[in-house]
Write a structure and sequence with these properties.
Layout lengths: L1 H8 L3 H14 L5 H64 L8 H11 L6 E6 L5 E4 L12 H9 L3 E6 L6 E11 L2 E11 L1 H51 L14 H49 L6 H32 L8 E3 L1 H18 L3 E5 L8 E3 L1 H19 L4 E9 L2 E8 L29 H11 L3 E6 L5 E8 L4
Parallel strand pairs: 7-9
Antiparallel strand pairs: 1-2, 1-5, 3-4, 4-5, 6-8, 9-10, 10-12, 11-12
């Protein structure tokens, strides 16, 4: 039992991660309801803030609008009432300008009797000193009004308006006083007085109706903001939860897209990220497994032959030489694999440098071809080089890095297309570029795998040995030389690698 526990504890990291990911995806949430409440609790903070700010702004706008409208209506009503009283006062003063102080009172009595609005407006006739001599309220004559309009009319002999609180009754009133002049001499004052109680009541009704309308607008704004925030925050909350699940290892999960707006675009981005992370996770696991296998195979051969030679089990010189050759060959393969991994590590960490110098591109390619031709011949694979007679001007590049690209592509042609029995290599000028093509006649690459063939760690359905980073390294080297690397299936079968490098003459 202890041994089983140890085996479980020392499983490879990628296997433990994959198991944990499956457990997270497949295990139902025991506290789902509690998590949902917590999620909505966090969302509720934003929603409350959103509602508060929206409703507060709406309330402020409505309050300003109601206040402005109230002032405008109040001023309009007051101005209308004042204009009406001024017109009446001026007309009455004009009617009595031909009467002396002792003779205009009789006509004043007739004026009051015939005044139609005496139930709303009080008419007063005052002496030159401001004493009330006659009023439309017959029982209230006598006394001084004590308001500024009378004093101003007497002093300035001009129309005067005043509104405020009546000293005798305490009511809010508006009064207009007009002097009565006879041959330039002040003989009296005619005064029109109206209570502002009806105006105040009317304004109160207006303010109340506008306030109620404003409250309805605020309530409607609250409802609209509530549902609008819900329509925005719920998808955001789902995206957040999905992102958290992805962060905890549930790679590959997908969200349902419910709209084509910005939220829908965010869902597409999250789904795409999830798929890419899942693909990267699987590729990394496959890479670790593949590298482990690739390292184990030569190590097993080296270890087996080393123990055999060390124990003296092989005494024949030819067998000893064969065993030593296997050890050297497998050790070289291990060295190349480690160098490839180190190269990739330098690229990933930004420590990838080029030793740029003028170089003969054609000569470097021919060196790689000659190096691999004998190697291919021993394996029964024909290497055909279409030698271009045209000379290429020297280019600025790193000979060692570009030779690494050529050798890697030739090695791939052997691994993946060696069954075709032939590999073609050519170099041709095309405009201001040198184009190198390396083609095999093997089964080619499945069409669905072509877009990913240059991704790091990607091996696709190929069973050939390798780490899956060779083409990724070649791509980085070509990009560093301002060139391109294209992998495609050739017409008639097989795979073709096309290298394009800029060539600039002197």
């Amino acid at each position: 039992m202890a041994q089983k526990e140890r085996r479980h504890r020392w499983r490879p990291v990628w296997q433990r991660r994959e198991t944990t990911r499956r457990e997270r995806v497949e295990t139902p949430g025991e506290d789902g309801e509690k998590k949902e409440r917590k999620r909505w609790g966090r969302t509720g903070v934003i929603r409350r803030r959103w509602l508060f700010n929206s409703v507060l702004a709406t309330f402020g706008i409505v309050a300003v609008a109601v206040t402005a409208l109230t002032l405008a209506i109040s001023n309009y009503y007051s101005a209308t009432m004042q204009t009406s009283l001024e017109s009446r006062a001026q007309t009455a003063a004009g009617m009595f300008q031909n009467f002396t102080e002792s003779t205009y009172l009789y006509s004043a009595r007739q004026f009051i009797t015939q005044f139609e609005d005496r139930d709303r407006i009080e008419v007063q006739f005052l002496s030159a000193t401001g004493w009330i001599r006659m009023t439309s309220l017959m029982d209230m004559s006598g006394g001084y009004p004590g308001t500024p309009d009378v004093a101003n009319a007497i002093q300035n002999r001009d129309l005067s308006v005043w509104s405020g609180q009546d000293p005798s009754t305490g009511d809010r009133i508006m009064a207009v006083s007009a002097p009565i002049l006879y041959n330039g001499t002040l003989v009296g004052v005619v005064r029109f007085v109206t209570s502002l109680r009806l105006l105040d009541a009317q304004m109160a009704r207006v303010v109340l109706s506008m306030a109620l309308t404003g409250l309805v607008i605020v309530a409607l704004m609250w409802v609209y903001t509530f549902y609008f925030s819900r329509s925005v925050l719920e998808p955001v909350s789902r995206v957040t939860e999905t992102a958290k699940r992805i962060a905890t290892g549930s790679y590959g999960i997908q969200m349902e897209k419910r709209s084509d707006d910005e939220i829908g675009q965010l869902v597409d981005a999250i789904n795409d990220m999830s798929l890419k992370i899942d693909q990267a996770e699987k590729t990394q696991s496959e890479f670790i497994s593949s590298v482990s296998h690739e390292l184990r195979t030569p190590l097993t051969a080296i270890n087996g032959w080393a123990e055999t030679l060390y124990n003296g089990e092989v005494r024949d010189a030819q067998d000893v030489k064969k065993g030593m050759g296997i050890i050297v060959s497998e050790a070289r393969r291990l060295t190349n694999m480690v160098e490839e991994l180190l190269e990739f590590s330098r690229i990933e960490t930004g420590r990838f440098n080029l030793s740029v110098e003028p170089m003969d591109l054609k000569a470097e390619l021919e060196d790689a071809v000659y190096t691999y031709r004998e190697f291919f011949r021993r394996k029964g694979l024909e290497l055909v080089y279409d030698e271009c007679q045209e000379e290429f001007p020297p280019i600025s590049g790193d000979p060692e890095r570009l030779r690494q690209v050529f050798c890697n592509l030739l090695d791939n042609a052997d691994k993946h297309g060696g069954s075709g029995g032939r590999v073609d290599v050519s170099i041709q000028p095309e405009g201001e570029q040198a184009v190198i093509r390396i083609r095999d006649y093997g089964p080619g690459v499945p069409e669905e795998e072509l877009p990913f063939i240059k991704y790091k760690f990607y091996k696709g359905s190929s069973k050939a040995r390798g780490s899956g980073i060779g083409l990724a390294v070649c791509e980085e080297i070509m990009l560093a030389h301002n060139g391109t690397l294209e992998i495609s299936n050739a017409e008639g079968g097989g795979c073709q690698a096309t290298l394009r490098l800029p060539v600039h003459g002197d």
